Amino acid sequence: MFSLFTKVKSISTTELANQNLNQVVLLDVRSPNEFKSGHIRQAKNVPLSKIAQYEGNRNELYVICQSGMRSKQAAKQLKKKGYDVTNIRGGMNQWSGKVIGGK
């Protein structure tokens, strides 16, 4: 049964920073241009518009965007597909760790 109120786990960017990022799958659902402007090294760019086609490891996924809104939408779609997914609240706006790319 489909529910508009699909509950998705979420963590803060601080909690994400405490994870071993080499051990998790981190999807960045921002546009390719946003991704190029600066992203977390381990992140894989899968824009929200393409998230429905995502086929990947069913282990725990972490999803991030700029503010947390698009990643929440993406997380709900992935959860419906059977993924164990966690949304990153606050997104890149709140991320204080290292980023690559950008100017």
From TrEMBL:
Pfam families: Rhodanese. Residues 20-100 form the Rhodanese domain. CDD domains: RHOD. It comes from the Bacteria. This is Rhodanese domain-containing protein. InterPro entries: GlpE_sulfurtransferase (IPR050229), Rhodanese-like_dom (IPR001763), Rhodanese-like_dom_sf (IPR036873). It comes from Enterococcus sulfureus ATCC 49903.
